[in-house]
Design a protein that fits this description.
alpha+beta; Arc Repressor Mutant, subunit A; Aminopeptidase; 5-stranded mixed β-sheet; 4-stranded mixed β-sheet; 18 strands; 36% helix; 21% strand
């Protein structure tokens, strides 16, 4: 087993993520290629300066525009929004691998009285009338139901029948999201938008164990380097400590992942075997590590394990969106700032699209960051790109940089 320094671990992760060195991803195809390599990116509907999935892509895809993700999802149908790590976006080609999830959803739906008849009504209506949102589906009243997306919570609470039946059919795999109007989702029959060869394909993985190993392998690839420790990067995968160790051992024996020690950290880390060449370049000091500056999404794959970020970067980050205003240390929607191979600060920016102005509401540099002319110039160029991403023409800074 090789041993690497924390610095080399940071370089490896950022290189794998496409956040350092020359841009590896460009335009719409680059956005798709990144998601395909990561496996999935998280979706969150909050839009302060871009939704989380859009922010994830803008930081590593040259020339990315929000319309590109919308096209990949709802026009090209190369991506799908569905459950994985919470609500996520992933390649539609992976649909067969989630068959167990859909079967579990269908089994759970059977436990709600009257739901099956409502599902038939909804499917018949959509088949005849096309895409529909919950407000337009002619099903009234409330039913006892709880979202299959989470399979937890209070089962004795009523919910709007139209919304509930659409979400149930969505998690069952009968419906997909046709498009969104703001946060409102319009659903249509999956068969109209997913090729039958994918929609009806058998799961290539024949056992629950194989599915778990496949999902863990994907998460390791998404982050780049993950440790043998309870990690929020594994959120949504039903494993405990002993099962995680067993899976990591199996994947190692199968030659799919490689163990590595990081100086000063007792846990073993793992990376995908396919990244051996990148690890070699990092160890030999030959990797292209040209400095770049990026604003990172709160739920970016890089930030999935905040304990790992602290262990490797000595950077503490908390998403304070749900923290009461009087208890926030920074801001409502702050984005970490990466420059070269370190976190140099965090920023809160608000676009005023009517005026075409991106306003810097808050800016906090990490201790020890030297505000050279070079780093200030990098910040300004990054802000200009971010302004364009948010359909703004100018940048307004209320705080000194």
């Amino acid at each position: 087993m090789i041993t690497i320094s924390k610095k080399q671990a940071r370089q490896f992760i950022l290189s794998k993520q496409g956040l350092i060195g020359p841009y590896r991803f460009t335009g719409k195809e680059g956005a798709y290629d990144y998601i395909r390599k990561a496996g999935c990116i998280q979706f969150d509907p909050v839009d302060v300066c871009g939704k989380n999935a859009e922010l994830t892509l803008q930081s590593r895809v040259r020339g990315f525009k929000k319309s590109m993700l919308n096209e990949l999802l709802y026009k090209d149908r190369k991506l799908i929004d569905y459950a994985d790590k919470e609500l996520s976006i992933w390649p539609v080609d992976d649909w067969p691998y989630f068959s167990d999830y859909r079967e579990r959803s269908k089994d759970l739906g059977m436990s709600f009285e009257g739901l099956e008849e409502l599902k038939k009504q909804a499917l018949d209506h959509i088949a005849e009338n096309g895409p529909v949102c919950s407000d337009k589906l002619p099903i009234k009243g409330e039913i006892y139901w709880h979202s299959s997306m989470h399979w937890s919570g209070n089962w004795d609470k009523k919910s709007q029948a139209a919304r509930s039946v659409l979400e149930q059919l969505y998690t069952d795999g009968e419906l997909v999201i046709h498009h969104k109007n703001g946060s409102r989702k319009y659903y249509d029959l999956a068969i109209r938008h997913i090729d039958a060869s994918i929609l009806n394909a058998q799961n290539p993985l024949k056992s629950k164990e194989q599915v778990l190993r496949w999902r863990v392998l994907r998460r390791i690839g998404a982050v780049g380097l993950l440790w043998d420790k309870n990690s929020t990067a594994f959120l949504g995968i039903d494993i405990n400590a002993s099962k995680r160790k067993e899976i990591l051992s199996c994947l190692t024996d199968e030659g799919k992942i490689c163990p590595v020690c990081v100086e000063g950290i007792k846990q073993t880390f793992y990376y995908r075997k396919e990244d051996d060449e990148l690890m070699r370049l990092i160890l030999e000091g030959k990797a292209s590590l040209k400095p770049r500056m990026s604003f990172i999404a709160p739920l970016d794959p890089l930030m999935w394990d905040k304990s790992l970020i602290y262990a490797l970067w000595d950077f503490k980050y908390a998403w304070e969106i749900y923290t009461p205003a009087n208890k926030r240390k920074y801001g409502y929607y702050t984005l970490p700032i990466i420059y070269s191979e370190r976190f140099v600060g965090r920023i809160e920016v608000i676009p005023d699209r009517k005026r075409g102005v991106l306003s810097v509401k808050g800016l906090w540099w990490e201790e020890g960051v030297s505000l050279t002319k070079k780093i200030q110039a990098k910040l300004m160029s990054t802000l200009k790109r971010f302004a364009s991403f948010n359909d703004c023409l100018t940048v307004e800074i209320k705080y000194g940089i």
